[in-house]
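Reference record
================
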Amino acid sequence: MNQYLDIAPEVRKALDEGKPVVALESTIISHGMPYPQNVETALNVERIVRENGAVPATIAILGGRLKAGLAREEIEHLGKAGYAVTKVSRRDLPVVVSRGMDGATTVATTMIIAAMAGIRVFATGGVGGVHRGAETTMDISADLEELAMTPVMVVCAGAKSILDLGLTLEYLETKGVPVIGYQTEELPAFYTRTSGFKVDYRLDTPEELAAAFHVKGEMGLRGGMLVTNPIPEEYSMDPAEINGVIARAVEEARALGIHGKQTTPFLLAKIKDITGGDSLAANIQLVYNNAALAARTAAALSALG
């Protein structure tokens, strides 16, 4: 057990008994949407995980402690504090923990803490990747490197469509990370079901996903697996429309000199404003969809041992 890690009693009991657990990130609470919608969404995600047969473990850093599983009041605290909570990736962990700070975990950091706790499946919205213009800025999300190192299956709606999706797939291939399409051969692009890019493999059931990840572990292959689950058809946005909005937002970020960890929150907020909130509604629905699939997959994985 890591000396800096606290596992909630319900989560610990499930892990000890070999029952399915799904990790959930906290950046979406503090940085992903406004209060109280952020808290409502986080609690709904936990409910959906339970309804689909698994125990939710929302992950964060509170008072310098790594937390696998949060109480309702802790989720409420993160939601109310919002941007005052530090957004924490791998590089930030030593300082945030040593100083006893609060932190909202990104995909990368959620994977790290989930792996420490023994949680193998993680549901999120979209993963980070290679940003547009990275050939000059070198702006590449730490999420990709974590997928190459940490043995956690990440269920998402594809890479965020604010990214360079082609370069993101190339980077994952170089790092040996399997990119799986759930019931699709095409990489979903967060707000939309299509991107024009192919995934490595299509798998059609939670049981197939669980079997592939189980075998990966049995063979001793390091790193995780990226499962891309398209946003439900009824919430998918028009690709041409959303790509135009994204292009406007990216250009504004470039003009304002926004970069690094500020880039994604700025772009998502700008896209929400331009779309009149439609992108936020889509974001919430795709997270719900991913939580349900992750829970069913975690249940299938626990049955394999």
Summary: DSSP finds 13 helices and eleven strands in the chain. The CA atoms of residues 191 and 242 lie 8 Å apart. The mean pLDDT is 92. The two ends are 20 Å apart (CA to CA).
